[in-house]
Amino acid sequence: MRKLRAAFEALLEGIVITLMVVLALEVLVGVAYRKAGHALVWYDEIASVLLAWLTYYGAALAALKRAHIGFPGLLASLPPRLRLPLAMLSEALVIAVFVLLAWVGWSIMGVLATSDLVSLPSVSVEYTQSVIPIGAMLFVVAELLVLPEVWHEARTGQRPGAAAELTH
User: Fold this and answer.
1) Which of 24, 28, 101, 111 has CA 20 to 30 A from 83's CA?
2) Where do the domains of the chain lie?
């Protein structure tokens, strides 16, 4: 499971880093062209799409690293008999929301197939918005991969490896 998680993390990190570099370069090129008096018509629209992709893939990476805003102290302060059921309920609700998002995102893909980007008519909106179901399912995979860690934390009241972190 650790190897799978490490491979998934490396994949998401690679995608996120690539998207960040492409977005930064695209913005720099757009600004340079605008400064030179030759504004690119597609610059703003593509920057928006890249930012959306970066957000979805970055959210999946943050889920895998358990870096989203949360209240771990609240869960840890609960009696042990409540911690595990509430932690699992919380995880189930998060997974359910993202499965629903993926399903709705997938179901509207057909509607978007007939629309193209305004500035680049050769690019389908269906392609640019495919990040919604893909990103949602990547988030679900990330949540499932950290589930054993959540389970351990809820059972013991400590994050796995917390004792090792304190000694270093």
Assistant:
1) 101
2) 2-160
Q: At residue 132, what is the residue type? A: I
DSSP letter for 84, please: H
Q: How far apart are CA 121 and CA 125, in angstroms?
A: 9
User: CB of 23 within 8 A of CB of 47?
Assistant: yes
Question: 14-54 pLDDT, tens per residue?
Answer: 999 999 999 999 999 999 999 999 989 898 899 999 999 99
pLDDT digits (tens, 9 = 90+) for 121-166: 888 888 889 999 999 999 999 999 999 999 888 888 776 665 544 4
Residues contacting 123, CB < 8 A, separation 6+: 116, 117
Take residue 127 and report the two structure tokens written for it. 């392609």
